[in-house]
Sequence to fold (325 residues):
Amino acid sequence: MELRGRRAGGRPASLRSGHMKDDQAARVHERLAARPELRPVVFGEGRRFGLWELASLAEGALGECVDPDSLTVSSEKRWRLRLGAAGHEHRHDDEFRRRYWICAPEDRCRQREPLGTIALDTWPVGAGALHVSSLYTHPVARRQGLASAVLDTVYEACRAEGLHGFRLDTYWTWQQTVRYYLRRGLWVTSWKHSLGLARLSYLPRYEVRGDESALTFAVTGPQGDAVPLLVADSADGRLRLRETEQYRSLPDRRDAVRLYARSTLALHLALRGRPLVRGEEEWAEARRWCDIGEPEGLAYKIGVFEEVAHENGWKVETPYVRPSG
Fold:
């Protein structure tokens, strides 16, 4: 059986033209603007959108829930000071991305009240994907599937215009957010500056199953069957990672499924408090994988992420026990 992804940094020939890619992105936005559950941010709403982004930052970084529409000028200033660099207000957003209010799909009034926010860049990144940011739902509107439905809508719009899907970033210390994205089946494609996750058409659906003894990373095969690729367990506080025959049959080391399977399983392991380091030799090479790749690279970057969060005064509650030495 063959599981072909694509090279992690490759670009299909149809997307080599920057002009063509910009046109595709523009058509994606046309589709999104026509959706009943999305309303483009219009002139005069920029500051309100920024306050909703600020509420999202406060909850993610500090663990404090804020009603964005109750923020005053003075309280906004206090929150931005507490958040440091992360709380700086974005400028010139419309040059680089388009912002949308998430609304109730059945609310078709002209001035629909927002229940959340999302923004997408106006040009594709990487191998034909749009970057998503500012995904947030108001606390009163959660557990209704709004954010999940909007992410599905974004993915479907990208696919309809010949793009592969979307990418987004989040912070390791925002544990609830990280777990949410993994439950949605997003793949881990980077940990260079933060955690980069993606839903891309050339990456199949996956599942991580197992118990206290071992975890298996499996993808959906051509016949809809689960194909195991990697098995992880631990002994004496160290990770043991086994590649299956199906994994070894993947085309080459630049194949996206081969690369991102390792990184995605690594994040699942970290969230369960499992070891990420196989031995002293692998740990000595951890910085080699500080962008993406082997689990030791994630172990190293978790240390960096948590130190930066501490310096910024962010709340840090981590399930992962960092290796000593």
